[in-house]
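Lecture notes, continued. The same structure-token format from the folding unit now serves as the input rather than the output. Read the line below as a description of shape only.
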């Protein structure tokens, strides 16, 4: 079934508003199979804030979410929702008493219940009239008002995602936990669904913790992005902060491909095949890795000034060329993204200049 645009969704601004809660992980430790999976994990989400948990597979993202949901007990530390203990060693308040909503990647819809019954399921504590009104408002918002009598298997993937969203926000939870909510959608649908879901989260003002392994998704959705590594937060900040000032080389690698050059500080500079870079804050003799991002770290032109190089590979993205440029002294070609230019062909000689403001320099141990 064709789904193209946000026109399929209902009117913005019509979702019921939650009493957003504070969600606090305080030095939470979880061990699974003898391994520490969350290691003194601390994170506080302010009311209405959207935080994305990002990290490699196995870094503990889903475990953190399951802890917040009350599905996973903790071995040390505490989880508080609105300053009340929700988890502590030996104590796990169950999911239905936490005031949270859950949305998982497989949507976890009830196949034997209709669309409307799926949404009503989370509203059992309300009277029938209020529950129906709230369920129908949520279905209207996600553009499924006319499908309330259908069963989930009759909906497309995107519609199932919308139903899962309607079901999770209809009870107006204080906290919403979303685990890879868009991962089962194809790329064509994902952008619209992501944008509308974000609009719904903003409208409800619900405090949201979203797990994703997609850096771009995290940067689009999160007020803050927390980068998880081995069960701890390696870095947390706004998307712009993390992108501009990654805490270390691994964090930088996570957000974009890099061209890396090893060098050493001498007289306040590092020398690279692409020219010198000032490194006034690093001590003389420090070993460093210079990391150049394809977007912005360096530029190439058909004429000088700059370091001579040659285009050895080129891919066309929409409106953008992704070029591989070989420069004398580099072991591997430099990746560069630039606005499309038909004159830039494989084999073409070019001149490369560094853009020092966008080049990252990390001290090596
Ligand atoms: N029940 C379990 N018993 C033993 N180890 C487990 C169990 N569940 C998870 N783990 C391990 O805990 C670690 C963290 O898992 P978790 O699912 O939280 O990671 P993740 O960051 O969400 O990964 P992914 O992106 O692959 O879902 C992994 O190394 C995983 O193998």
């Amino acid at each position: 079934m064709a789904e193209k645009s946000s026109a399929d969704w209902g009117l913005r601004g019509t979702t019921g508003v939650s009493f957003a809660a504070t969600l606090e992980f305080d030095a939470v430790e979880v061990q699974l199979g003898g391994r520490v999976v969350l290691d003194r994990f601390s994170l506080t989400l302010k009311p209405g804030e959207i935080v994305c948990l990002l990290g490699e597979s196995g870094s503990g993202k889903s475990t953190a979410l399951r802890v917040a949901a009350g599905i996973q007990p903790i071995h040390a530390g505490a989880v508080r929702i609105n300053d009340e203990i929700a988890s502590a060693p030996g104590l796990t308040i169950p999911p239905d008493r936490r005031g949270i909503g859950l949305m998982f990647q497989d949507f976890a819809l009830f196949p034997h219940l209709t669309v409307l019954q799926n949404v009503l399921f989370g509203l059992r504590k309300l009277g029938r009239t209020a529950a129906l009104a709230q369920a129908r408002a949520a279905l209207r918002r996600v553009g499924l008002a006319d499908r309330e009598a259908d069963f989930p298997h009759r909906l497309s993937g995107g519609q199932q995602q919308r139903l899962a969203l309607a079901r999770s926000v209809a009870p107006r939870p204080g906290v919403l936990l979303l685990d890879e909510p868009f991962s089962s959608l194809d790329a064509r649908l994902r952008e619209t669904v992501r944008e509308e879901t974000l609009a719904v989260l903003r409208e409800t003002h619900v405090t949201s913790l979203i797990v994703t392994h997609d850096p771009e998704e995290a940067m689009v959705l999160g007020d803050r992005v927390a980068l998880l590594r081995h069960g701890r937060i390696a870095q947390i900040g706004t998307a712009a902060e993390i992108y501009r000032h990654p805490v270390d080389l691994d964090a930088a690698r996570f957000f974009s491909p890099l061209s890396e050059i090893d060098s050493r500080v001498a007289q306040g500079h590092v020398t690279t095949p692409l020219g010198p870079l000032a490194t006034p804050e690093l001590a003389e003799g420090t070993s460093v890795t210079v990391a150049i991002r394809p977007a912005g770290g360096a530029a190439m032109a058909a004429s000088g000034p700059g370091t001579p190089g040659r285009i050895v590979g080129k891919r066309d993205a929409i409106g953008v060329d992704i070029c591989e440029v070989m420069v004398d002294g580099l072991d591997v070609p430099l990746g560069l993204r630039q606005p499309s230019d038909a004159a830039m062909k494989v084999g073409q000689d070019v001149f490369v200049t560094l853009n020092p403001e966008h080049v990252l320099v990390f001290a090596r141990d």
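Point for the exam: The radius of gyration is 24 Å.
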